[in-house]
């Protein structure tokens, strides 16, 4: 009896915890949706659901600028950033995580050091680089420059996870005469599912949300990415902040990310396939 | 294990015996690392070199060509500037508190999401929402929610009778940093939770099964098995959170501008670089920020033994 | 036959190209962010393009002025010709002067002379006309007509009157049940807007403009201290403590939701406050900001935007022609009527069509023509630093961290060091 009660209480506490987590994370987003349906003076009133939802804010976002194009740009930049950084990082992580060679530790620290400078400090140099490479006002400039923050992160995370995998896996493959390339693609990649999905997703979001580089390295409206497009939204005067439109745009751009997570969340939790490790 | 495997294992581990296999593996290692290094050098090499070089000059944004070498002048001035030290102190306070909270909350959320229950896919997506909203927008949104007169937070707290009069969250020197921390924790806990969840998912299942069979209390399982096994993932997640927190910029900048109560090292550096056009001095601040983070990271990694050869 | 036709067609194309092509160029202009501002600019620029046969490329830039300046500086520091015409804030000519051409070489003196002298002076750096005025802005006082009538009050002419009236109405309204009511809202976040607000207080008391036209630092005086001490007294009594982190929009939010009696803001708040969905539509009055005292004067700070041509432009002459067109009386009139942008040409303030569209242009003419410029010209590239020192000092006083006289003395020594003894 006592045991049963304890268990029920435990389950209850668990669900209460879940509710609190959801409230904490989702309420501001809910508030963004509510705000996106308000216009004019209603924004300054507290209503938990607008009396007259103003769907016009959503139309305005697409009417005033090539917002559809901007979303596609962001999808392109974020996807290419993920593909490039993951393919570079998986290879590097195998070497750094599984092979003992001199210079490994200094290398890891140098890679980490790259992400220790404030973004604003590298902006000017990066701008010169982008212009020198002839990539100004080109989406590839963003893919390339985003490597400065996605690579250190992906390399380190993947190296850590790679190192934790049991030694026996690789040994068996080496005995079978497999080349390192095969070991990475056939042995490790399948087991790294959760780590790859997670780092990929985090890198995707980081690239999706980046503002400073995207603003500086693109010029024309049809090359802008989503955060820049949102920062460009203004009202009748430069002092006015058209909050309803900005919130509508933010809600629109968050939806693809939620869909992405729903698709990838299975990969995140696929876990180690039972029996892969044989003693 | 077969004898062949043992031999390979020995070769994999023992460094002094440089067999053909070991040498071959090292060659492959460099082959595998090189593409990443080339890209990183291309992207980061010039900008970083330039920043460090400018930190020893009096370069000004209005004309970068006439920069003159001034040695350590910028650094000397920087070290004697109380505003810089105020920014350092703000940043350290901010990073320590927010990363600690994020780690605890993130771990809790990761453990909750690791459990089996209906609708956890949706919940995982829900938890990630804060990270998915561009900071430029979410910082402004929170600023709006924190507004003392028409903000929803004061409204709710008053409705629940938790406070008797509205709090000027972002304006009062006592609460400005608290407000920034609340938002940062909200925003980046998902990052932590997701990385830890990936770590949990990659733990070998056998340990748990045997623990379950032995009837060990879940709390004990957590302390004795889960946490130690999760340590590498936890450490790397904390490192990147600390690096990000020490460089915190947009959140603070959008929420309270150049206010000294919340000014971080990056905000200080940006103010010098952009607002004041003092590229030399601003670069020195950025470089010093880099050195502070680097020193911190070295200490942290040495203590936690992550990233070292076995 | 066919060959002849082809040959003639080719000839015609060549001739057409040599006639039209000699002048035709593509000019890219950065004006405003997405929204009405951009639309007005696009319409104007396209009209010019149609008339001259050139092409226009519009570059939209961030809504936030600080981000816009940062972007400009990156592009200009790289010597990029990607933008020919820049829309710049009234405080930027000193900062960007090095990168802009002298417009007086392309635009005749008579045309320049039509504009407000104060703005032309502001835009002239070392005898170089860095930018042409496009539209102006000045700080004004908004009040609730209905509340002032209810309590039988006149719009205040001195800050003391404002303080008393605000207090009385605030207390009265709170007693009547609106416990969110405040007397006065303004902008006191530690940013450029506080420099504007605090300069208005200081100057209206006769405390000068921080730095005078010769570069001498004048801020450490009793009148300035009195002005800031007065403002300190508002915090928590007639102004919410949150005002210490308000920008324009946060103050407008409080005022427009009916929770404030007075507001200091720019003219843009007029149209929004009177929109049909506004809580206080039709209940708003606008006047000049109050005087410091009986011997003070009303001061509104000068705002607004200018157009400048980059010295890296490949077609400076054509770009200057675009600037001349966009800043002309005809174009400014169109913008005033369609978007209530304040013209910078004096004659337009007497234009009947303009006055019908925006009535307070007439009554506030004095405010706009006498608007006080921030000391951005004399402090040139150091303006942002000087302004930052000033708003930080003002913020310290307002938040009660320091007393005005001591903090102003400290400010003086900081500005002195910054300017190397007033030489800037």
Summarize the structure in words.
The complex is a heterotrimer of chains A (279), B (310) and C (424). Chain A has 279 residues and is mainly α. Chain A has 12 helices and no strands. In chain A, helix 2 crosses helix 12, helix 3 packs across helix 9 and helix 6 runs antiparallel to helix 9. Chain A is flat. The C terminus of chain A is likely disordered. Chain B has one domain: Orthogonal Bundle (MetI-like fold). Chain B is flat, with a radius of gyration of 25 Å. Chain B has 13 helices and no strands. The two termini of chain B are 23 Å apart. Chain C is an alpha/beta fold and 424 residues long. Chain C folds into 2 domains: 178 residues, D-Maltodextrin-Binding Protein, domain 2; 206 residues, 3-Layer(aba) Sandwich (D-Maltodextrin-Binding Protein, domain 2), CATH 3.40.190. In chain C, the strands form 3 sheets. A 5-stranded mixed β-sheet of chain C has the order 2-1-3-11-6, with helices on both faces. Chains in contact: A-B, A-C, B-C. Chains B and C meet through helix 12 of B and helix 3, helix 11 and helix 19 of C.
Helix/strand order of chain B = HHHHHHHHHHHHH
- Looking at how many chains there are and whether they match, the oligomeric state comes to heterotrimer
Q: Determine the CATH superfamily of chain B.
A: MetI-like
Shape of chain C: globular
Largest interface: A-B, 111 and 109 residues
Mean pLDDT of chain C, nearest integer? 89
Name of the CATH homologous superfamily of the largest domain in chain C: Periplasmic binding protein-like II
Question: What is the element layout, followed by pairings?
Answer:
The complex is a heterotrimer of chains A (279), B (310) and C (424).
Chain A: H1 2-36, H2 56-64, H3 67-98, H4 104-114, H5 119-132, H6 139-164, H7 167-175, H8 180-191, H9 193-209, H10 212-217, H11 226-232, H12 243-268
Chain B: H1 3-13, H2 20-54, H3 73-79, H4 82-114, H5 120-132, H6 135-145, H7 152-159, H8 176-201, H9 205-214, H10 218-246, H11 250-256, H12 265-275, H13 279-304
Helix pairs in contact in B: 2-13, 4-8, 4-10, 5-8, 6-11, 8-10, 8-11, 10-13, 12-13
Chain C: H1 2-20, E1 26-30, H2 36-52, E2 55-59, H3 65-77, E3 85-89, H4 93-96, H5 109-113, H6 117-123, E4 124-125, E5 128-129, E6 132-138, E7 140-144, H7 145-150, H8 159-175, E8 182-185, H9 192-204, H10 222-234, H11 248-256, E9 260-265, H12 268-273, E10 284-287, E11 302-309, H13 316-326, H14 329-339, H15 352-357, H16 360-363, H17 365-369, H18 376-379, H19 383-398, H20 404-418
Parallel strand pairs in C: 1-2, 1-3, 8-9
Antiparallel strand pairs in C: 3-11, 4-5, 6-11, 7-9, 7-10
């Amino acid at each position: 009896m006592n045991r049963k009660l304890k268990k029920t209480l435990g389950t209850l506490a668990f669900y209460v915890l879940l509710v609190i987590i959801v409230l904490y994370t989702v309420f501001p987003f809910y508030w963004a949706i509510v705000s996106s349906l308000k216009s004019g003076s209603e924004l300054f009133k507290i209503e938990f659901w607008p009396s007259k939802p103003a769907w016009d804010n959503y139309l305005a976002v697409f009417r005033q600028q090539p917002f559809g194009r901007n979303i596609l740009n962001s999808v392109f930049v974020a996807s290419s950033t993920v593909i490039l950084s993951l393919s570079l990082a998986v290879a590097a992580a195998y070497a750094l995580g599984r092979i003992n060679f001199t210079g490994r530790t200094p290398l890891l620290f140098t890679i980490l050091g790259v992400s220790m400078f404030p973004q604003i400090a590298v902006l000017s140099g990066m701008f010169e680089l982008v212009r020198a490479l002839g990539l100004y006002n080109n989406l590839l400039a963003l893919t390339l420059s985003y490597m400065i923050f996605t690579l250190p992160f992906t390399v380190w995370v993947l190296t850590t996870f790679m190192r934790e995998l049991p030694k026996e896996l690789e040994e068996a493959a080496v005995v079978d005469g497999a080349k390192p390339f095969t070991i990475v693609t056939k042995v490790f990649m399948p087991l790294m599912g959760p780590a790859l999905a997670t780092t990929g997703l985090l890198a995707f979001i980081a690239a999706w949300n980046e503002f400073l580089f995207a603003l500086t390295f693109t010029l024309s409206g049809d090359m802008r990415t989503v955060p820049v497009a949102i920062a460009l939204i203004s009202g009748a005067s430069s002092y006015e902040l058209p909050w309803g439109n900005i919130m509508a745009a933010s809600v629109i751009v968050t939806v693809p990310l939620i869909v992405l997570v729903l698709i990838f969340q299975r990969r995140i939790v696929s876990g180690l396939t039972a029996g892969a490790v044989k003693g | 294990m077969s004898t062949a495997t043992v031999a390979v294992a020995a070769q994999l581990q023992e460094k002094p015996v440089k067999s053909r296999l070991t040498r071959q593996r090292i060659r492959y290692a460099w082959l595998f690392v090189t593409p990443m290094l080339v890209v990183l050098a291309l992207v980061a090499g010039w900008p970083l070199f330039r920043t460090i070089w400018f930190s020893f000059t009096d370069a000004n944004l209005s004309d970068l060509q006439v920069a003159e070498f001034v040695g350590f002048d910028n650094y000397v001035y920087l070290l004697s500037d109380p505003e810089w030290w105020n920014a350092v102190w703000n940043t350290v306070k901010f990073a320590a508190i927010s990363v600690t909270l994020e780690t605890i909350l993130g771990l809790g959320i990761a453990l909750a999401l690791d459990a089996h229950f209906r609708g956890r896919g949706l919940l995982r997506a829900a938890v990630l929402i804060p990270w998915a909203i561009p900071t430029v927008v979410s910082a402004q949104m929170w600023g709006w929610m924190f507004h003392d007169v028409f903000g929803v937070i004061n409204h709710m707290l008053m409705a629940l009778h938790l406070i008797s009069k509205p709090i000027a969250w972002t304006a009062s020197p006592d609460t400005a940093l608290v407000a920034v921390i609340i938002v940062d924790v909200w925003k980046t806990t998902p990052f932590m939770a997701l990385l830890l969840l990936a770590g949990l998912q990659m733990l070998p299942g056998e340990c748990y099964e045997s623990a379950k069979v032995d009837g060990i209390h879940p709390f004990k399982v957590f302390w004795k098995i889960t946490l130690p096994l999760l340590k590498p993932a936890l450490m790397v997640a904390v490192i990147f959170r600390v690096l990000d927190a020490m460089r915190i910029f947009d959140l603070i900048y959008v929420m309270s501008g150049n206010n000294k109560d919340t000014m971080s090292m990056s905000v200080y550096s940006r103010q010098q670089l952009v607002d004041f056009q003092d590229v030399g001095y601003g670069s020195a601040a950025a470089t010093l920020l880099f050195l502070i983070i680097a020193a911190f990271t070295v200490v942290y990694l040495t203590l936690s033994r992550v990233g070292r050869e076995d | 036959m066919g060959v002849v036709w082809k040959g003639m067609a080719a000839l015609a194309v060549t001739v057409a190209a040599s006639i039209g092509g000699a002048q035709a160029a593509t000019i890219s202009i950065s004006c405003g962010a997405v929204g009405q501002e951009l639309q007005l600019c696009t319409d104007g620029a396209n009209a010019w393009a149609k008339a001259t046969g050139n092409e226009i490329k519009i570059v939209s830039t961030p809504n936030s002025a600080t981000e816009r300046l940062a972007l400009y500086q990156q592009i200009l520091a790289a010597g990029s010709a990607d933008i020919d015409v820049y829309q710049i804030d009234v405080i930027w000519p000193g900062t960007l002067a090095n990168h802009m051409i002298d417009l007086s070489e392309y635009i005749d003196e008579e045309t320049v002379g039509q504009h407000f002298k104060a703005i032309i002076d502001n835009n002239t750096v070392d005898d170089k006309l860095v930018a042409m005025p496009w539209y102006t802005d000045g700080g004004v006082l908004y009040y609730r007509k209905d509340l002032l009538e209810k309590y039988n009050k006149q719009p205040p002419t001195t800050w003391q009157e404002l303080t008393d009236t605000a207090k009385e109405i605030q207390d009265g309204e709170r007693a009547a049940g609106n416990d969110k009511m405040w007397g006065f809202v303004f902008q006191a976040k530690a940013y450029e807007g506080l420099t504007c607000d605090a300069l208005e207080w200081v100057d209206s008391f006769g405390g000068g403009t921080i730095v005078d036209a010769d570069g001498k630092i004048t801020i450490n005086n009793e009148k300035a201290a009195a002005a800031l001490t007065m403002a300190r007294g508002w915090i928590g009594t007639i102004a919410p403590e949150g005002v210490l982190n308000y920008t324009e929009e946060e103050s407008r939010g409080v005022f427009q939701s009916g929770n404030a009696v007075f507001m200091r803001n720019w003219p843009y708040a007029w149209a929004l406050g009177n929109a049909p969905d506004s809580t206080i539509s039709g209940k708003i009055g606008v006047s000049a900001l109050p005087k410091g005292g009986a011997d003070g004067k009303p001061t509104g700070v000068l705002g607004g935007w200018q157009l400048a041509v980059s010295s890296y432009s490949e077609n400076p002459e054509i770009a200057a022609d675009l600037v001349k067109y966009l800043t002309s009386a005809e174009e400014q009139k169109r913008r005033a009527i369609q978007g209530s942008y304040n013209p910078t040409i004096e004659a337009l303030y007497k234009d009947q069509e303009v006055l019908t569209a925006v009535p307070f242009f007439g009554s506030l003419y004095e405010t706009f023509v006498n608007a006080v410029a921030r000391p951005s010209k004399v402090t040139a590239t150091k303006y942002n630093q000087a302004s930052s020192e000033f708003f930080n000092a003002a913020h310290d006083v307002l938040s009660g961290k320091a007393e005005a006289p001591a903090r102003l003395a400290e400010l003086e020594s900081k500005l002195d060091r910054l300017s190397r003894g007033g030489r800037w």
